[in-house]
């Protein structure tokens, strides 16, 4: 836990997962949960110092009540990066974490090294309406995974069961998703489109080819709007390419970060 | 005790099975199921039934707000209330209520309720509701993470708008208004305020702190209500407030007939229609963040009234008319039987404001009118004197006086 005081905003206790050594990388998790020490994060930590905070309002991270809008959240992450004592940091943002990473890169370009957006929310295309992440469970599942029959069980999570609290994980998930609605409900568009042209970092957009929550058309729109941006579509993967195609994901991201 | 006439304005011509994949009567139901001309006829029927109830001594006429659903086709309760405020004389106009987070800016609520209070000579009860998940999160796109916060900000704005002596600036999180100066103001100043809830501690404390009437508006009867209502009264006592039955409202479906046999004949189909046509898939009913984690934990801990399996049987149309009656989902039968059961209900729950649902599902107008007639003349007069030791601060003074002067009295048999 790390405590962050942001003047005129509030105090945040941040559950900061940290591992590895090497050039610093900030990983911002997606709308469902922090993946904990998932294999892909461990592999990133083999050549980077990985900082993976749990977003305010998720799991054990507090202070969500201080977050009024997406700018507060971008400000929070800027201050978190400063508190790490690094000048610049490469940022990998997944899902809603990608939405926030893109905001951060547009609003505080001076602290961003390279930017990787993985199946990032934040845009809306009228002619390509995407599946509602809060829709019927079977439809969401089908949209989220390339192969719903091969979902890892359990899915990678930072949640630690407490024998005293048999329903703990249900409430952990309920609270996470409640927090997610702040910037995803009813459409995950808080004006990012207007700010993406101000991203200065070299950027990579990664997209699972089968992602129904953030279809490839959305990834292409990110690439069109960000000045220096390339696209990597990963076949046979949905919203979680680092789970369904871990090897290809790591190879793609490491190649981009080391170039 | 007080009686408030109510009906969900349910569309009366739905097929037995809703045709879509997720059989939902809300949010995304196919609109070609609904004939607008029939809807218009329906509205006129509800207005006539409530006008009749006004002449029969009901203490209030209740209207509610729902969106994108055939279960209750009243997107603005204030519109229906306006039809009643100008054409009735005695009963309170119980707006239960406006979904505050859905009005932008919410001083619209302050204005419209004030208009209604002026038009009705001060008979408005102002209900403030969160709104169902389908209404707020889905039909109106409010993030569940912000719903409560928006509700409370709106509540603060509206109450101040009714009572401030001079124009004021309101710099809220969601509402920025340089000049708040609502016109007209309610005749009553701040009208009585009712807030319904589903058993959360936060809402109990809110109604007690603000002196609101609390509504537990379930359609599942006495047994289902008992644990939550008891929890509420425990909290009232714990907080040191008076256990005044008028600070609580409860809903009950009612089917009165000349004989029990006639009750079954006249109401069975409509009751079945009511319970089987209000379907919402799980993801519409429980979006994340709609209930606080504290309330969800409390819900797990609390003793169950009526189990989910029994509700499911009702939704599947598997309950017989008299099973529904026995479970308390309906109170049916002769005036004498209905009177006894309501007395038990009111006494056991210690509830002074009964919202009587006199029309349900696809009930024909003439049956509902007869329900009104029998209840108004042969049931209500016998129960009106319950709880007269307590002061009712939650019903407008004007409607209390007018109803007391005009309501039917107990008819003493000749000889």
From TrEMBL, chain A:
Top-level taxonomic group:
Bacteria
Q: Which PANTHER family match?
A: HYDROLASE, PUTATIVE (AFU_ORTHOLOGUE AFUA_2G14860)-RELATED (PTHR43798:SF33), MONOACYLGLYCEROL LIPASE (PTHR43798)
Report whether Hydrolase shows up as a keyword of the record. yes
Native organism is: Streptomyces carpinensis
UniProt keywords (A-Z) are: Hydrolase
Q: What is this protein called?
A: Alpha/beta hydrolase
Q: SUPFAM superfamilies, alphabetically?
A: alpha/beta-Hydrolases
Question: Which parts of the sequence belong to the AB hydrolase-1 domain?
Answer: 25-251
Q: What Gene Ontology terms describe what this protein does at the molecular function level?
A: hydrolase activity
TrEMBL record, chain B:
Annotated organism of origin: Streptomyces carpinensis
Q: Which GO terms describe its molecular function?
A: oxidoreductase activity
**Coiled-coil region list:** none
Q: What is its EC number?
A: 1.-.-.-
SUPFAM superfamilies under this entry? Bacterial luciferase-like
Record-annotated Luciferase-like domain positions: 41-346
Cross-referenced InterPro entries: Bact_Lucif_Oxidored, Luciferase-like_dom, Luciferase-like_sf
Glycoprotein as a keyword of this entry, yes or no, is no
Keyword set for this entry?
Oxidoreductase
Q: Does the keyword Transport apply?
A: no
Ranked from the top, the taxonomy reads: Bacteria, Bacillati, Actinomycetota, Actinomycetes, Kitasatosporales
Q: Kindly provide the name given to this protein in its UniProt entry.
A: LLM class flavin-dependent oxidoreductase
């Amino acid at each position: 836990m790390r405590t962050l005081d942001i003047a005129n905003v509030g105090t945040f206790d941040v559950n900061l997962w940290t591992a590895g050594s090497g050039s610093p990388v900030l990983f911002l998790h997606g709308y469902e949960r922090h993946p904990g020490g998932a294999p892909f994060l461990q592999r990133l930590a083999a050549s980077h110092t990985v900082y993976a905070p749990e977003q305010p309002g998720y799991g054990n991270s507090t202070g969500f009540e201080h977050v009024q809008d997406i700018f507060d959240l971008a400000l929070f992450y800027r201050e978190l990066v400063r508190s790490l004592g690094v000048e610049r940091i490469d940022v990998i943002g997944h899902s809603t974490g990608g939405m926030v990473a893109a905001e951060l890169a547009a609003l505080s370009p001076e602290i961003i090294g390279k930017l990787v957006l993985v199946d990032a929310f934040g845009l809306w295309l009228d002619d390509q309406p995407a599946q509602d992440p809060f829709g019927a469970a079977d439809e969401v599942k089908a949209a989220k995974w390339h192969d719903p029959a091969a979902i890892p069980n359990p899915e990678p999570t930072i949640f630690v069961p407490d024998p005293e609290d048999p329903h703990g994980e249900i409430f952990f998930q309920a609270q996470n998703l409640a927090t997610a609605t702040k910037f995803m409900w009813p459409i995950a568009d808080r004006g990012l489109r207007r700010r993406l042209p101000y991203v200065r970092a070299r950027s990579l957009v990664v997209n699972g080819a089968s992602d129904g929550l953030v279809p490839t058309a959305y990834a292409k729109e990110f690439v069109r709007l960000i000045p220096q941006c390339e696209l990597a579509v990963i076949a046979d993967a949905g919203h979680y390419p680092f789970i369904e195609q871990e090897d290809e994901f790591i190879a793609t991201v490491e190649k981009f970060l080391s170039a | 005790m007080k009686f408030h006439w109510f009906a969900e304005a349910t569309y009366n011509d739905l097929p037995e099975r809703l045709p879509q994949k997720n059989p939902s009567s809300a949010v995304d139901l196919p609109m070609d199921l609904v004939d607008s001309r029939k809807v218009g006829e329906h509205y006129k029927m509800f207005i006539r039934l409530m006008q009749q109830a006004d002449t029969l001594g009901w203490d209030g006429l209740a209207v509610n707000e729902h969106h994108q659903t055939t279960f209750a086709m009243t997107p603005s309760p204030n519109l229906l209330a306006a039809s009643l405020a100008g054409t009735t004389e005695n009963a309170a106009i119980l707006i239960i209520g406006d979904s505050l987070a859905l009005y932008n800016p919410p001083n619209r609520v302050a204005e419209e309720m004030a208009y209604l209070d002026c038009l009705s000579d001060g008979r408005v009860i102002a209900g403030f509701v969160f709104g169902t998940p389908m209404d707020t999160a889905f039909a109106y796109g409010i993030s569940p993470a912000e719903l409560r916060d928006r509700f409370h900000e709106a509540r603060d704005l509206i109450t101040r708008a009714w009572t401030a002596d001079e124009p004021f600036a309101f710099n809220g999180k969601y509402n920025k208004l340089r000049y708040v100066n609502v016109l007209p103001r309610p005749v009553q100043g701040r009208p009585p305020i009712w807030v319904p809830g589903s058993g959360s501690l936060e809402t109990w404390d809110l109604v007690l702190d603000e002196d609101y009437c609390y509504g537990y508006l379930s359609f599942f009867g006495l047994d289902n209500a008992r644990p939550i209502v008891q929890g509420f009264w425990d909290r009232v006592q714990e907080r040191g407030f008076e256990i005044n039955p008028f600070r609580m409202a409860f809903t009950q479906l009612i089917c009165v007939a000349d004989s029990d046999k006639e009750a079954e004949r006249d109401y069975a189909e409509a009751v079945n229609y009511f319970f089987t046509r209000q379907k919402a898939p799980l993801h519409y009913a429980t979006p994340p963040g709609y209930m606080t984690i504290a309330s969800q934990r409390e819900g797990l801990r609390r003793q169950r009234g009526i189990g989910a399996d029994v509700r499911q049987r009702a939704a599947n149309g598997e309950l017989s008319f008299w099973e529904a009656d026995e479970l308390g989902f309906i109170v049916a039968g002769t005036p004498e039987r209905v009177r006894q059961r309501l007395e038990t209900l009111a006494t056991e729950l210690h509830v002074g404001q009964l919202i009587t649902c006199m029309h349900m599902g696809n009930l024909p107008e003439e049956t509902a009118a007869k329900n009104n007639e029998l209840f108004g003349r042969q049931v209500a007069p016998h129960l009106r004197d319950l709880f007269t030791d307590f002061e009712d601060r939650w019903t407008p003074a004007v409607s209390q006086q007018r109803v007391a002067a005009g309501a039917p009295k107990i008819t003493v048999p000749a000889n």
